[in-house]
Design a protein that fits this description.
27 strands, globular, FAD/NAD(P)-binding domain, four-stranded parallel beta sheet, alpha/beta, homodimer, 11 helices, six-stranded mixed beta sheet
Chain lengths: ~425, ~425
């Protein structure tokens, strides 16, 4: 269907099928708009559960949905699979890696973030981060291969390095990864190996700041640390990684030999600021006005992890609910603009609280003055996440995988695939 | 656990965690035996459903199980992850790609088969076959990318090539692939694309012989062909592929431009015959005696697709039930030998019938004089396959994926991952 045939609707192009981009499209239903969604991947990814793919609990297809399918009933939305390499602002078009440029009247950039190594990009091959589906399967492969190689290794020092897992960064992702790897080593795998004792695996969680899960109040943070220690995780706070290599990590002057390092220490925005030649903050996020558009170009919205946004004087955090709120808000701004109505009040972020899990039985939740921990928090966490998944099929499938893993203690997706790493 | 500590049990090494290898281990319980299972992969694969991963119906983890987990309660079994590169028969040990050789008293080789290009191995990059989990995700990626690229392609000839899918070989795998791709193009995807009409995709099934599914009786074969045509598959029998390239296929003198070719035309055995320097048939299968051992070495069994076996004067087919029967039989031979009892009668293959599905609603079953077709056969096929899956979790997960796909018509695993191809 060529939209030009029916008399030039307003052409909206959205880059990125993450939480912000999808919510924007859901909220923008307007008779005179034609939407093009562009993404490098064919799937929307439920990033909050990505760590469960990396730690063999969930299958890839349980947390990813073909984007095109999500909008099959929206004839005003077309999906294009391709990689943006630049933006021609004067010509109002996207430059693509392959094929023709894509023109726009309004552009929405919601390309997310990627892991950042703070000037040490050469660490990436040794300390992969967790952002895409492929990252999760690569980390899963590395974890599982470590145990397999240890089983065949005869040199005790090499065996010990294979059984040492280092997670850098004790935010929610780092804590969740450390907890799940500890459960895997200490509870799921011991029965299955004959030569090694997987319970002797060391899982180190290294944090530069003074406490884990710094976004939570100190009491919940302490609880999380204690829960991690109970699971067998060694938590090192106020510790800075000074080197990552094929041999292991270095913390200040101490070298720790290890085969698996996972980077969960920081993110930086996608290169949108460079495409736009726009002002960015230190994390590379594009600085936008309170209506989420560029200061010098109201045709361009920047949303989610790609944008540096403040609300009531405070920076808006890089969380899925914040991205969704921005998507809905930008759609409202554009709808009003197209209808010739005055703009809405500035973007106002409503914080819905913080959640994090530690292993299979504990979680912490903070919502205003409400603080929950232990198994009630774990159940609430699980129900909330299943609720936010897309579609009945996935909800059932994830609920089934979790129930099985919870009751039987067996992880279902322990596959080593693509042995190229 | 080192078995030598408890007084030198008989050391059995099994190469290959397919149907034959697993069944052998299940059937070989003997107080004085220590079993080592060696495989290049960490998972057992339910190959009969691999085509459903390639065609986006099932997720990888639904048809693959970590081998080590299957034998967690068998303390007499150890699993080693590694690649065999040769066999030192004089020294009675396996030579490994990495690490120490592995010694054996009895060796069981069940390394399966791989696709064969009959002297045209250079076709493989253009016409991948379907044997491993990675093959399935690679073919899935190729199929999905063809539609995605066609949506963005402006040249009508290139677009047509992207929407042409050629499957070479009309055995069960070829028929199942053709049927599922036709369903995908004609039923699942049309609503989701805006520029192309996926119903115009051409799906060609090319067969060198005079009919599809030649293992079945002519009437069922005719029924299958008619069912394929109804689904929109073009069936070309008595047609020989003379070239596969990046541009497409050539059938005798006719060139057909296409982006996706899938090879389902033939298999050859794994290189076990070379490792053993043993006699092999034309498909590379090791010729064994009626007790499934080598003519000149009763310490070595060869099973499943790797072996050339006859039963009542007829060659045993390369099917999962045949592999399982051979595994169970070899275990019996070895048990009796260890106990000093006389050997059992020669291997006798009991044919359990042939099954094949065509798309989501039809199947054919032949069991002796019983011939079933249409939806009763489809349901029986489904129930049989769920029954043969391993473990409650997988049975539920696959049943749920199928039910969903059947009722809602939506495939759940439409993910393009690892875009390296």
């Amino acid at each position: 269907m060529n939209h030009d045939d029916k008399g030039a609707p307003h052409k909206v192009v959205v880059i990125g099928a993450g939480f912000a981009g999808l919510q924007f499209i859901h909220a923008l239903k307007h008779p005179n708009v034609a939407i093009t969604l562009v993404d490098r991947r064919n799937h929307h990814l439920f990033q909050p559960l990505l760590y469960q793919v990396a730690t063999t609990v969930l299958a890839t297809s349980e947390i990813a949905w073909p984007v095109r399918h999500l909008f099959r009933d929206r004839k005003d939305v077309e999906t294009l699979f391709g990689e943006v390499v630049g933006i021609d602002r004067a010509g109002r078009r996207l430059l693509m890696k392959e094929g023709e440029p894509i023109g726009y009247d309004t552009l929405v950039i919601a390309t997310g973030s990627r892991h950042a190594y703070f000037g040490n990009d050469h660490w990436e091959p040794f300390a992969p981060g967790l952002k895409r589906l492929e990252d999760a399967t690569a980390i899963r492969r590395r974890i599982l291969l470590s145990f397999e190689k240890a089983e065949r290794e005869t040199d005790p020092a090499l065996r010990e390095a294979l059984l040492t897992f280092v997670i850098v960064g004790a935010g929610p992702t780092g804590v969740e990864l450390a907890g799940m790897i500890a459960e895997l080593a200490h509870h799921t795998l011991p029965e299955e190996f004959r030569r090694i004792d997987t319970r002797k695996a060391r899982i180190l969680l290294i944090e530069g700041g003074p406490r884990v899960l710094a976004a939570f109040s100190p009491s919940l943070s302490d609880y999380a640390k204690a829960a991690l220690v109970r699971l067998g995780v060694e938590v090192l706070t106020d510790s800075r990684v000074t080197e990552c290599s094929a041999e292991g990590v270095r913390i200040s002057d101490t070298a720790i030999a290890c085969h698996t390092i996972i980077w969960a220490a920081g993110v930086e925005a996608s290169p949108a600021a460079k495409w736009l030649d726009a002002d960015a903050d230190r994390a590379g996020r594009v600085i936008v006005r309170t209506d989420l558009t560029l200061a010098d170009d109201e045709r361009i919205f920047v949303l989610g992890d790609t944008a540096s946004v403040t609300s009531q004087g405070k920076p808006v955090p890089g969380l899925a609910p914040a991205a969704k709120q921005q998507g809905a808000y930008a759609a409202k701004v554009l709808r009003r603009r197209l209808d010739g109505r005055p703009p809405p009040p500035p973007f106002h972020y409503r914080h819905q609280g913080n959640l994090a899990t530690i292993g299979r039985h504990a979680a912490i939740i903070e919502h205003g003055k409400l603080r929950l921990r232990g198994w009630p928090a774990w159940w609430l966490w699980g129900i909330a996440h299943i609720y936010f998944l897309i579609g009945t099929r996935s909800r059932f499938a994830v609920a089934w995988s979790w129930l099985w893993s919870y009751l039987v203690g067996v992880h279902s997706a322990r596959l080593i695939t693509h042995r190229k790493t």
